[in-house]
Amino acid sequence: MEQKFPSYLLTDKHASTKRKQNEETAKALYLLTHIAANQTGNRIIYLIFHRAKIVALKEGIYITPARFYRAIDELIDTKTIARTEFKYQCILNPVYFRFLKTDPT
């Protein structure tokens, strides 16, 4: 006779991992938005974990460096932000960040 398992044991582990990654991406996007809003007139942002960590501590958000950079890569894959020729700089997609006052150049 086949043993039945409780439903919480039958959950898809991949789905819960993906949900957790989406939460981390949302945290990174919030930090990115907060950093960009405090920066004046430029669409290029310098993204490094130590800078985001200061904002995260003020906002009460916990995120590790590995999860932060993985979330940044996911934001790049979804074309929310784009890479530049420099390692820790990115360009904001104006479609997602219209509320920011940026220079026309």
Structure description:
The structure is a single chain. This protein has three helices and three strands; from the N terminus they run H-E-H-H-E-E. The longest helix has 26 residues. It has a single domain, classed as Arc Repressor Mutant, subunit A (Orthogonal Bundle). The model has no long low-confidence stretch (mean pLDDT 77). A three-stranded antiparallel sheet has the order 1-3-2. It has 105 residues and is mainly alpha-helical. The chain is elongated, with a radius of gyration of 18 Å. Helix 1 packs across helix 2 and helix 1 packs across helix 3. This is Plasmid replication protein RepL domain-containing protein. It comes from Klebsiella aerogenes.
Structure summarized in a few sentences:
With 105 residues, the chain is mostly helical. The protein has a single domain, classed as Orthogonal Bundle (Arc Repressor Mutant, subunit A), CATH 1.10.10. 48% of the residues lie in helices and 10% in strands.
Mean pLDDT: 77
Strand order of the largest sheet: 1-3-2
CATH class category label? Mainly Alpha
Head-to-tail CA distance between termini: 71 Å
Shape call? elongated
Order of helices and strands: HEHHEE
Instruction: Kindly name the structural category.
Output: mainly alpha
Specify Rg, calculated over alpha carbons: 18 Å
> Number of DSSP helices?
3
Kindly give the count of domains: 1
Q: The CATH topology is what?
A: Arc Repressor Mutant, subunit A
- Range of helix content: 40-55%
